[in-house]
Design brief:
Helix content: 25-40%
Largest sheet: 7 strands, mixed
Number of helices: 11
Structural class: alpha/beta
Oligomer: single chain
Length: 453
């Protein structure tokens, strides 16, 4: 009996150590109650010295369990030392999205203690959220099925976190969450990849597919950089705004183009209910790689600036704009991490290729190093006042060397040994569908299934 109580005590202590490693909310009330619990444990231990070991172990276990249950209501994803971005002035480090305070009756409360971005790809013979070739809104550049790709195993893999089960994407529930809302994706063509995936997944859940329509079409996107779909029955819109650097590209008269590191590009989305930002891939292109006479602050154009410094300045400009302009009571902000590329023997403009890949990378040790850009992003997010949910998709995409369009480009592009292969974007359906599944899970985890009106 004493041994069982002792084991119970040790188990509870281990639970307490796991759950108290990183508190999401550090208000004075919580600190007071936790301190009170610890003091009560001290007095309990001194008052029970004359009791039997069995009674002592049992009493300690009861009090410790109460403490652990209280603290665990406010824990983040402790398995990866991840904290909510709204409170990073602590010993916690940032690596992925977190859960927030658990509420009674929350059907996904177990996910709030799970790093949903730490996992592996597993074969799954269930149907994809939409069939290859079935969605008319997939851009030709991402439509590998239409462009002749016949091996379809890349749609059979599903992302599975190591420590929990995530709910499958439910388009009807997602549309209910978005009822009367505006959701905007802002960033580069990888964010467009994710946006098109979500539009197609939501469309698939409609009985009458005619109830979704283009507000702004492809032709307007080419001239204005804005594309929008509206779901009539739910009175919600899903928009994409092209902003590959997040800061403003600048051109005056005949003067060559520069990048204004101190000026955000546009602000047509500040009143949106959900905003998903991203940037990254354009910072690796040759335009920024040399850094000569391209980066600008105020009226000053730098003759030379390293890309890392420019990227940091640009992200801080973005962060300052978000903190100053986004109403955190009505708008949820997400930032999608860097999606991995898989060029072999070159890059996008030097005949790098990825064709012939039919399976994900199996060994984690074979993954590319963590991108420096994400370390910069994480340090910027840590200093922000506005809560930002970080969708850390970098590792999960690093496995998927098989998921790119590669040679399956639009049919008007002639295939040849020296053609540009696309090893950055993703076939649809495919990998971005699971970014949206994790976005959906994150909304459930964070209690945003009922978003503010």
């Amino acid at each position: 009996m004493a041994m069982a109580s002792f084991k119970n005590t040790i188990s509870t202590l281990m639970q307490l150590s796991r759950t108290s490693s990183c508190l999401l909310w550090r208000s004075g009330t919580h600190v007071f109650y936790i301190s009170l619990l610890l003091v009560s444990l001290l007095f309990l231990s001194t008052s029970l010295t004359d009791r039997s070991p069995t009674a002592l172990a049992s009493a300690l276990a009861t009090h410790l369990r109460f403490a652990a249950d209280y603290i665990s209501s406010f824990t983040s994803v402790s398995s990866s030392n991840t904290c909510l971005v709204s409170d990073l002035r602590s010993n916690c480090t940032l690596s992925s999205v977190t859960g927030v305070e658990r509420t009674p009756g929350n059907s996904v409360k177990d996910l709030s203690s799970c790093d949903i971005f730490n996992g592996d790809w597993v074969l799954d013979d269930s149907d994809p959220v939409y069939q290859p070739g079935a969605c008319p809104y997939v851009d030709d550049s991402f439509n590998c099925f239409k462009n002749g790709r016949v091996d379809l195993d890349y749609v059979r893999y599903r992302w599975k976190p190591f420590d929990c089960q995530i709910p499958r994407f439910d388009g009807k529930k997602m549309l209910e969450m978005l009822r009367g809302k505006r959701m905007v994706f802002v960033g580069d063509s990888l964010n467009r990849n994710m946006w098109e995936s979500l539009v197609c997944a939501l469309r698939e859940s409609l009985k009458d597919k005619r109830r979704v329509f283009e507000v702004f079409s492809r032709s307007e996107f080419r001239t204005q950089g804005f594309y929008s779909f509206r779901f009539r029955d739910y009175k919600c819109s899903i928009d994409f705004i092209k902003s590959p650097f997040l800061v403003q590209e600048w051109k005056t008269g005949t003067r060559r183009e520069t990048l204004r590191l101190d000026m955000i590009q546009g602000s047509k989305y500040r009143d949106a209910d959900i905003i998903v930002f991203n940037t990254g891939h354009w910072w690796t292109h040759q335009k920024t790689g040399k850094g000569k006479n391209y980066f600008q602050e105020g009226s000053h154009v730098y003759s030379k600036m390293e890309v890392k410094e420019a990227f940091t300045k640009a992200l801080r400009t973005w962060a300052q704009w978000v903190d100053a302009n986004i109403d955190r009571k009505s708008t949820r902000v997400f930032f999608a991490g860097y999606a991995a590329s898989h060029f072999r023997k070159g890059q996008w403009n030097t005949c790098g290729h990825c064709d012939g890949e039919t399976e994900p990378i199996a060994n984690e040790k074979s993954l590319a190093p963590y991108p420096w850009m994400m370390s910069v992003l994480e340090s910027v997010l840590a200093d922000m006042k506005t809560p930002v949910f970080y969708l850390n998709i970098t590792k999960m995409t690093a496995y998927r060397k098989d998921g790119h369009p590669s040679i399956y480009r639009p049919l008007e592009i002639l295939r040849s040994p020296d053609m540009f292969q696309d090893c950055s974007h993703w076939c649809l359906p495919g990998v971005p569908d699971y970014w949206n599944e994790l976005l959906y899970a994150t909304l459930l985890i964070s209690g945003h299934g009922d978003l503010p009106k």
